[in-house]
Each structure stands twice: as structure tokens, then as C-alpha cells.
Amino acid sequence: MAGSKRLKDLNREINRLRNQFLPDPFDPLGNYADTQRVQAYTRAFLVLSHAEIESYLEEWAKDIARSAEKLWDASAKMTTPFSFLLGTLAERILVPNTLREPGAKDTPKRLAEGATKFFQKYYKQIKDNNGIKEQNVLNLFGPLGIPATALGSTLLPNLDTLGATRGTHAHQSAKAVVSVLDPETEYKRVTALLSDLVLFDEWLVGYKRRIR
After folding, report:
1. 3-state secondary structure string, 129-144?
2. CA angle, 165 then 189 then 205, to 5°
3. Cα–Cα distance for residue pair 209/186, rounded to 1 Å
4. Could you give the 3-state DSSP secondary structure of residue 1?
5. Can the peptide bond before residue 25 be classed as cis, meaning omega within 30 degrees of 0?
6. pTM for this model (two decimals)
7. CA atoms of 75 and 112, how far apart (whole Å)
8. What is the mean pLDDT of residues 103-121?
9. Contact, 1 vs 11, CB < 8 A?
10. Burial class (CB in 10 A: 0-12, 13-18, 19+), 62
11. Rounded CA gap, 19 and 16, in Å?
12. Dmax over Cα atoms in the chain, in whole Å?
């Protein structure tokens, strides 16, 4: 399939989860001999697929930020992701009143120190992420300057749906969950999301390539 190695690895892992947890073949009517087992395994597929997609998004965000940070550290070059991180996460850099006092820092030094801080702040933001819904995606990629056009029209709604479904079935006991999961429906939900990610992935590949 097209896309980055990261996306290919994600697809490979989803296929592994499908083979491990979901019935083969699917029953068109959803009739399975061991309903309780199928439900438990479908929940596992849903939760683990969600985790893989979440990790995919976080690793892409971290990769782009690290590329920008590496170039800044090497040559003080202000790339597009660096500019957006500076604008969204950095504190205002004040002009010094004097440079004649011991330990006085000029504005380039203050910017260098500020860059270290806001990169650390951003990496913590990625580490603290917990989900794949729209707000999670915006918190991950908004500070990098990712435009709405890169996300397409269906990616965010489908991420919201998967995130909500996963939440319903991950935070309740099997006895408390009222809705019944259809394994084929959940598999198609996840594979549709993988298709949504193709264009976003291609955009991210090009965006990272321009960090130089």
C-alpha cells in the first residue's frame, strides 16, 4: 500500500489483530456459536486498534517536532513547524534592559533557551495525550501548523466515532455494556479509518521532507 513505513506498520498490526481476535469468516447475520467469547475478542480488537492508531498519530507528531528541533540545534534554522511551535507554546521573549550586567542574556540566547523549553513542553503534551478524538488530534498537530486541508473531510469524524465506541466498551464491564458489537462492523470501521489516514500520511511525509 502507499504511505510511510509508519502507516504500513500500522496496517500490518491491524491485520495481525484481526487475525488474532476476530472470527474468520464473518457471519453476515452476526450469529456465532460462542457469543460471549466473540464479544470479548471484538472488544479487545477495538481497544487495541484504537491504541495502535493513537500511537501512530503521536509518533508522527513527535517525529516532525524532533526533525525541526534537530535542524534548529544544528543551524538555528527556523522551519515552519518551529515557527508554529514558537507561536503556540512559547512564552514571550523580552528584550533585555542591559547587556552589561554579569549573566545578562541577549535575545538570541533567550530564544535558544525558550526553544528548549517549548520543545520539552510539546513532548510532554504528546506523552500526556490520551485519545484520538478531534481535540486530541488538534492538540497533537495544531502546534505544528498542520492545516485543516491536510485532515480531509472524514478523518476527524471517524476518529471521533472510534474514540467514542472504544470509550463505551473499554471503561465498562462486559455486564454493564448494553450494546452488542458486531465484529465485521468494527473491523470495517477500523479499516475505513486506515483509508482516511492515507492522505493525511502522505501530507505528513511531504511536510517532514520540507524540514531542511
Report:
1. CCCCCHHHHHHHHHHH
2. 105
3. 34
4. coil
5. yes
6. 0.92
7. 12
8. 90
9. yes
10. middle
11. 5
12. 82
pLDDT tens digits, residue range 166-190? 988 876 655 555 578 999 999 999 9
Q: Would you state the cell numbers that stand for residue 139, as one nine-digit string?
A: 492538540
Q: Which three cell numbers stand for residue 19?
A: 487475525
**Cell matching residue 93:** 521573549
Q: What are phi and psi of 177, to 5 degrees?
A: -75, 120
Least confident residue range of 102-106, 141-145, 169-173: 169-173
For the chain, the distance separating the N- and C-terminal CA atoms, rounded to the nearest angstrom, is: 27
Residue 138 corresponds to which cell in the numbers above?
Answer: 488538534
Tell me which amino acid residue 175 is.
K
Q: Which tens digits make up the pLDDT trace of 82-96? A: 999 999 998 888 888
**Separation CA 210–CA 182 (nearest Å):** 43
Q: How far is CA 14 from CA 50, 141, 196, in A?
A: 10, 23, 15
